[in-house]
Design brief:
404 residues, mainly beta, Methylamine Dehydrogenase, Chain H, 2% helix
Length: 404
């Protein structure tokens, strides 16, 4: 406290607080007594300090996916540069990241213009995309990318041959183009060659490649512009995987659709679905992540903090200590302190509520991060840090941000 609030002189004029209040950032001028400051901070009306956010990556690096300016595979976390203002990330065979100042950055495989830098070349370290400072959320698909800006407009770039950019053109775009003119987009998730998005009114929308019913529109047709999935307005978060997708509603129910040959939908069948089907009857699901492999897996967390997985089980990627394929959710251990879990192609990356990082599954390129290339069928802690903020399992790479 002494560093943040030096002195103890009270002024007749309270400090002027600018910027966000009750969150990170902002600034204050003037002097209050320390006791008064503590009262206002407890009430959430004093700006908190911005904690440093560092970027790390490891695993497969043939096309610069790690971002450390090399193409050397890494089997343990490597810090990317020295910047401490990384805010969020999304990865497939390339990565997208937004910094605290709202700028957009990209690196990794560049084919089809997926990096958005007006090029198709691979990039082995983060480069800024344009000069705008209003990017809010990003999602990396297989050969394309998308983002929602702070004004809730939707932007896409990269491969467009299957309608995955949501614009009336099959020509690849190597820089961001706006999808329509609406400004009511809230959350975006890009998969192999399709996308889902939730609007601010809670409606769910899909576009891109349609085989296997992955769009959830009750058919297998492709769409080159967003189409609403049903008429419900209670979708909370959505995850587009390789050839199937899943979502959680505001009532805590879990839903899946698309390819299901290995039980990837979790509905206790191997029947492919072209519209959302509920997974079980529980109403306490919090988040879901579908993996980046057709015969892959999915992971989900309940509001209790319990972790579950299902689908194809090669290399132990579900984490239940076996290599048995599961067609319905099976709990991973008995702990209830899981905060994030992201399904990659062959492995899973997860974070606990105590800020520790855990990973398991296929590890041929060191993507688990435990300094080996041995696959694991149950979670192992990576390092000893307790400051992991966001973790992402990409195709065969892992990218993560620490906070503090």
């Amino acid at each position: 406290m002494a560093e943040r609030y030096p002195g103890g002189v009270i002024s007749k004029t309270p400090p002027v607080v600018t910027g966000p209040t009750g969150g990170e950032g902002g600034s204050a001028s003037g002097m209050w007594t320390l006791d008064t400051v503590l009262e206002y901070e407890k009430a959430g009306s004093w700006p908190k300090p911005i904690l440093p956010r560092r970027l790390y990556a490891w695993g497969y690096n043939f096309s610069g996916q790690v971002g450390d300016n090399t193409t050397v595979y890494r089997s343990s976390p490597v810090q990317i540069g020295s910047d401490t203002t990384w805010q969020s990330i999304s990865s497939w065979d390339h990565s997208l990241s937004i910094k605290l100042n709202g700028t957009l950055w990209a690196w990794g495989r560049g084919g089809n213009g997926r990096l958005g830098n007006n090029s198709t070349a691979n990039v082995s370290s983060p480069i800024q995309i344009g000069a705008l400072t209003n990017w809010a959320q990003v999602s990396a698909g297989d050969n394309f990318s998308g983002s929602v800006k702070a004004d809730n407009t939707l932007w896409m770039w990269g491969e467009s041959g299957k309608g995955q950019l949501g614009v009336p053109s099959t020509v690849d775009k190597s820089s961001p183009v706006q999808v329509g003119s609406l400004s009511d987009w809230a959350q975006l998730s890009c998969g192999q060659d399709h996308c889902h998005a939730i609007k601010t009114d809670g409606t769910l929308w899909s576009w891109g490649d349609g085989p296997n019913g992955k769009l959830g529109l009750n058919d297998i047709a492709s769409r080159s512009s967003p189409v609403q999935v049903g008429s419900l307005t209670n979708w909370a978060n959505v995850s587009a995987g390789d050839s199937r997708s899943g979502a959680v509603k505001t009532d805590g129910t879990l839903w899946s659709w698309g390819f299901n040959q290995s039980g990837q939908l979790g509905d206790n069948t191997v029947v492919t679905r072209s519209s959302p089907v509920q997974v079980g009857s529980d109403t306490n699901w919090s988040s879901v992540s579908h993996g980046k492999l057709q015969s892959g897996h999915a992971m989900a967390i309940k509001t209790t903090g319990a972790l579950y997985g299902w689908g194809a089980q090669g290399d132990g990627r579900i984490g239940d200590g076996t290599t048995i394929t599961r067609s319905s959710p099976v709990q991973v251990g008995a702990l209830t302190n899981w905060a994030q879990a992201i399904a990659g192609s062959y492995h899973t990356a997860a974070k606990k509520s105590d800020g520790t990082f855990w990973a398991w599954g296929g590890n041929g390129q060191g993507q688990v991060g435990n300094n080996t290339t041995v696959s694991l069928s149950s979670p192992v802690q990576i390092g000893s840090l307790t400051s992991w903020f966001q973790v992402v399992a990409a195709r065969r790479t892992t990218v993560a941000i620490t906070k503090g």
